[in-house]
Amino acid sequence: MKVNFNNGQVQSNNSGGYWDAEVVVAEIPKDDFAKYVVSKCAKGGKEYINLREWYHTRNDATWKPAKAGAAIPVPNGVAKGVITALMQAMQD
Question: What is each CA distance from 5 to 27, 34, 54, 69, in whole angstroms?
Answer without folding.
Answer: 6, 16, 16, 19
